[in-house]
Amino acid sequence: MSATTPPGAPARFSINQETVKQLSLPDLAKACGELGVAGVGLWRAPVQEYGVEATARLVRDAGLTVTSLCRGGFLTAVDPAERSRALDDNRAAIDEAAGIGTDTLVMVSGGLPAGDRDLFGARERVADALAELAPYAAERGVRLAIEPLHPMFASDRCVVSTLGQALDLAERFPADRVGVVVDTYHVWWDDRAPAQIARAGETGRIAAFQVADWCTPLPAGVLLGRGQLGNGSIDFRAWRDLVAEAGYTGWTEVEIFNEELWARDGREALAETVERFRAHVL
Amino acid sequence: MSATTPPGAPARFSINQETVKQLSLPDLAKACGELGVAGVGLWRAPVQEYGVEATARLVRDAGLTVTSLCRGGFLTAVDPAERSRALDDNRAAIDEAAGIGTDTLVMVSGGLPAGDRDLFGARERVADALAELAPYAAERGVRLAIEPLHPMFASDRCVVSTLGQALDLAERFPADRVGVVVDTYHVWWDDRAPAQIARAGETGRIAAFQVADWCTPLPAGVLLGRGQLGNGSIDFRAWRDLVAEAGYTGWTEVEIFNEELWARDGREALAETVERFRAHVL
Questions:
Q1: Which residues of B sit within 8 Å Cβ distance of A?
Q2: Could you confirm whether domain B13-280 is CATH 3.20.20.150?
Q3: Distance (Å, rounded) from C-alpha B78 to C-alpha B85?
Q4: Mean of the pLDDT values across residues A260-270?
């Protein structure tokens, strides 16, 4: 290793593409190479734009592992036509995941349909949809990874709000078909999450581990509140230890949606993220 | 009852003062009289400004029941001087509650101190502080009512995020000294809340029932997101039934923090709130 070679990002560090979405896919692959980042989590829209086959070639040539594809889901529709379109779209997402060579499709369940106030019913519809999708995914080597989102997203984005709820859904299916995502941003407040991580570990259901920090005040709409590691309230090492103790040996994906990070040079933002990971997660 | 007499608000309907904070205390009392509202939840700052004794006289003369005083709490300080100040302030809040004739002091636990990432430790400090305050409150006929706030407030406002956590704290004390607040806005997403309401009912710990609707998108800072009844995603009748089945026979307090509501004529906003209560909670 020459003196100018970067030290390389930590093992099993993965950068979720949305964290540095100012980078095109080729620029992202290049920056990962320069910074020694070996894993990337990708998003459907940029993959579709670049092309599934071209993306597969790009990451293969760059020696990158695609740790997840974000995202499928949005399965809470009551209207049959809308539900059918959602299922079709999820089958397409599964095909894309297989096409770019990842075994993990992150699933965000979807919120309440307009005027609907029945959270419990919506969660059941998610279960019904997973039952239709899981075999299709399994045939293609893709596992559906249910991501509980913070309860502040329960009405408009994801009716699955806790790891406990996600596991209640996942456990209706074989563990190699449906798992869960542990994302510090969504679960950090939950005193039951440590026990649920252990529960997920026992059946090998931790499909992905994602990190972002919890920062306040939250911005309007709250979606872009995910903060750079170290800027907020989350004790990452405690969560890292919990997933490790649960037997998880996979990647840790940094997924941040943050206007400030997006306004900066993408490679610099990625380099900072690697450093923050060293300082706060390792 | 003459033809011009308003029909009167529903029995056990209480208006939390902050919902119509544009009204002075005398104007609030007058509007309550005109609209047949028999209960009010008050806040410390306007009570202090008007005077505790003057407030007591005003509500007594108006025939109003003070259903709660908001709020004590903010008990998570590590610094001894800061902690001591918080305890003093809470003793003052207890005195004020007793002075205005309510038996319920709503307690918002407080967030993480700056730079602190230990939610579990903060919750223990809340328990320690409650142990100091509960006897003082009991001597004055005041019950401390722990309010779990939505998990989106965990870092900056309230480390107690679920009814389960609130009950874990409350049950360290006799039920007549420490209870919990069930607020639909904070618990509506929680699939465990129905069982926790039953648990709270079994030991007579439901000290207050508050309602506000969940509306999105959330505003920046999220504090003023509480929406008018019927504008959002909450099935109020389901929650009303749960607290009733748990044996709660007390007031239902409408507590909304909302810029739009505050910008309107206070009496009109109160009248609308009564109507919305009839339409969505009764």
A1: 112, 116-120, 123, 150-152, 154-156, 161-162, 164-165, 188-192, 214, 216-222, 232-235
A2: yes
A3: 12
A4: 98
Asked if B119 lies within 8 A of A217 by C-beta distance, the reply is no
Q: What's the complex ipTM?
A: 0.94
Residue carrying structure tokens 């920062």: A215
Element (H, E) at B208: strand B206-211
Contact state of A192 with B112 under an 8 Å Cβ cutoff: no
Return the CATH number of the domain spanning residue range A66-257+272-280.
Answer: 3.20.20.150
Domain residue ranges of chain B, discontinuous segments joined by +: 13-280
**Half-sphere exposure at residue B63, Cβ-oriented, CA atoms within 13 angstroms:** 9
**Residue B4 banded pLDDT, cuts 50, 70, 90:** very low
Indicate whether A5 pLDDT > 70.
no
- Please indicate whether, in this complex, the C-beta atoms of A155 and B218 are within 8 angstroms of each other: no
pLDDT 10s digits, A140-155: 999 999 999 999 999 9
Min Cα separation A55/chain B (Å): 34
Tens of pLDDT along B149-192? 999 999 999 999 999 999 999 999 999 999 999 999 999 999 99
Q: Which pLDDT band holds residue B3 (cuts at 50, 70, 90)?
A: very low
Structure tokens at B103: 């038996």
Chain A positions with Cβ closer than 8 Å to B: 112, 116-120, 123, 150-152, 154-156, 161-162, 164-165, 188-192, 214, 216-222, 232-235
Residue A192 has pLDDT above 50, yes or no: yes
Question: Does B5 score more than 70 pLDDT?
Answer: no
Nearest-10 crossing angle of helices A52-62, A80-100: 30
In the block, tokens 């649960």 appear at A246
Q: How far is B102 from chain A (nearest CA, A)?
A: 32
Nearest to A255 by CA among A239, A277, A237: A277
User: In which band, very low, low, confident or very high, does the pLDDT at A91 lie, cut at 50, 70 and 90?
Assistant: very high
Q: Which of A119, A234, A235 sits opposite B189 (nearest CB)?
A: A119
- Confidence class for position B28, pLDDT limits 50, 70, 90: very high
Size of interface A-B (CB pairs under 8 A): 96
- Compute the C-alpha angle A78/A79/A80, nearest 5°: 105
Option in B112, B154, B218 nearest A221 (CB): B218
The pLDDT, as a whole number, for residue A70 is 98
**A218·B190 Cβ contact <8 A:** no
Q: What is the mean pLDDT of residues B126-140?
A: 98
Average pLDDT over every residue of B81-92: 98
Residue in chain A lying closest to B155 (CA): A233
> What DSSP character marks residue A251?
-
What is the C-alpha separation between B220 and A215, in angstroms, rounded?
13
Q: Which of A76, A117, A213 to mutate to test the interface with B (most CBs of B within 10 A)?
A: A117
Helix, strand or coil for residue B167? Answer: helix
DSSP label at residue A159: S
